[in-house]
Amino acid sequence: MTAARRIQRRALGLALIAAMVGSPPPPAYAEGVLLKDVPPLPEGTALFQSEAKFARRGKFGGYAMRPSKYGLFADPKVHIEGSPEGIQIRYRKSPDPSFCGAYLIVLGDLSQFATMTFWIKGKKGGEAFELGLNDTISNKREDAVLAGSIYRYLPNGITTDWQRVTVPLGDFFGTDLTRVFGMVFNFNEQEEGTFWIDGLEFHREQRVDREEQIKQAGQLLLDDFDHSNLNGLGRKANAYKRLPSICEFSRVENPRVGDRPGRSLRLDYSKQATGWCGYYTLLNQIDGEFFDLASYKEVRFWVRGAQGGETFEVGMADRSWLTIGDSVKAGTVEKYLPGGVTAEWQEVVIPLSDFGKLDWSQMGSFVVNFYKQGKGTLFLDDLRFVRKSDQDLLKEWEDQK
Amino acid sequence: MKQRSGPAVFLLLSVWVVLRAVPALAAAVVIDDFEDATANKVGGRSNTYVMAPSRALAVKTTEAPHAGAKALMLKYDKKDKGGPYDSGGWCGYYTMTKAGPRYFDAAPYKSLTLWVKGAQGGESFAIGLADRHWDEVGDSVKSEEIGKYLPAGKITTEWQKATVPLSAFMLEAKELASVAVCFEGSLFPGGAGKGTVYVDDLMFE
Question: Which residue has the higher pLDDT, A377 or A285?
Fold first, then answer.
């Protein structure tokens, strides 16, 4: 037998053993599981006739309400190494209520995966969208679970270089991962852009350690209000009101803390003698986990008024307070800004101990409550919670002897 | 000359039979080495659990770890009065082996191991394990006092390896949700105890 023949036979034998124990070699450029290799939808998954006819894995498309527009195609000229083609996605988002977005059909069972990764590059850099996932139920109501802006995963945004985006599938809380219909790119920022995506993969292991990221930063940036109405935890935020009192929120480019591009939160309120109004941002996932703030010591944010003299209370709610729809107030803003709100940015720092006895391991929301009769406009920015250092924790332990 | 392929095929089939018949031997898996991540090595989060007036504090310390640069320092103060049923409340530390909706499959492993020492020596705790059922009721099955699993028979000021057999817990090992260090009142004289223990390299072997 020739040496080549022996090698060939040995290779055949090893391949046969590999096949028997079920470990096919991975594709050349993939570390995870490619979209084409994801398990199919469970047998019996209900699809509308139109869905069954129209949808196939890997197909991409878009949606728009005029005058917003989208365009997308497979682009053999722009792709990552080892891939035959990337997907070029273009969008022009007009002012609300016009909308547009793009999608990539998955039609698969992702329940065995913990993380999704894909590569992205922009034509100019700074392109933005909200990332979503919809299952076969939410697809029927033309809805998706949004995890937040791409800036949640690329803090410096999309650039003209390829960057890998790593997304924990747990961020799409509420999606039935056994029956995923598709990925959604929702263009929520009023702008025009072009970007490419490629190399979508799914991984069984967790690849993002959020707690470690927060610990390294020393703080949780709950919201910078820059790119999404969802906060930095991917939770919802909104104004609350009981007539005749009202409050409306928006995110505006001016004024803004510092000189980096972005937005601040604008609250327009009218507090009447009756009713109530304010703004909340959630720390808990609705019908899901509450957030553990036990290792945090203070909340900080920047504030200014349109005129100066605006006033409000700051509240927080744990699981119990959230259940009854109220919050514990630390006090009015003047307690922390002795000169009150002015037309200049000032930083408010509130020790969490000022909120009294809350269950800090199960926190639900942060609240700005307009309690005093009157109208006004208030701006907030960079809402964050600062962690206790190990020294803080040890001192606290000794102090409680 | 014509090659005879019979022996080779027989050998391959024998390998296949052996691979299928012998239960999978799993390499040891590190649940947490307490080095840098707040989340443990299987993606779960960790924290203390307390019911006042008892309290506990978990801090990663660089003071003489068993291996690597850091170990877990646990301070506990288990009270015997006050709280629910005037039993002093409870305290301990947990690390989740469930990451998101996925439970940890501990079936291929025989024991939970960890390295332990105390600030004074003579400290005490039990290991708690929870499967899906115990996770849902927010509790865990407790081991015997940790000293039973230590070579010296008790916690000392030197590092010792505790080996806790998983068979003792009678749990569904395929669906393990969490591991806990439990400062149970029954471990302390009069139900109250206070101290500092260090833990490192929590593993399934």
Answer: A377
- The domain boundary residue, chosen from A203, A222, A249: A203
Tell whether A195 and A217 lie within a shared domain.
Answer: no
Taking only the tens place, the pLDDT of each residue in B41-52 is: 887 888 899 898
Of A295, A324, A319, A306, residue with least CA distance to A380: A306
Residue B48 with chain A: CB contacts under 8 Å:
294
Q: Note whether B138 and B180 are within 8 A (CB).
A: no
Which one, of B113, B97, B133, B123, lies nearest residue B187 by Cα?
Answer: B123
**DSSP strands (E only) in A81-179:** 86-92, 100-108, 115-122, 130-135, 145-149, 163-168
| Integer Cα distance of A204 and A202 in angstroms | 7
Taken in order of first residue, the domains within chain B and their CATH numbers are: 25-204 (2.60.120.430)
Residue A257 in this model has a pLDDT that exceeds 90: no
Q: How far is B107 from chain A (nearest CA, A)?
A: 18
CATH of the domain at A39: 2.60.120.430
Residue A4 located in a structural domain? no
Question: Do the chains contact at A16 and B36, CB–CB below 8 Å?
Answer: no
> Which structural domain, as residue segments, surrounds residue A136?
33-203
Residue B78 neighbours by CB under 8 Å, 6+ apart: B54, B88, B90, B91, B183, B184, B185, B188, B191, B192, B193, B194
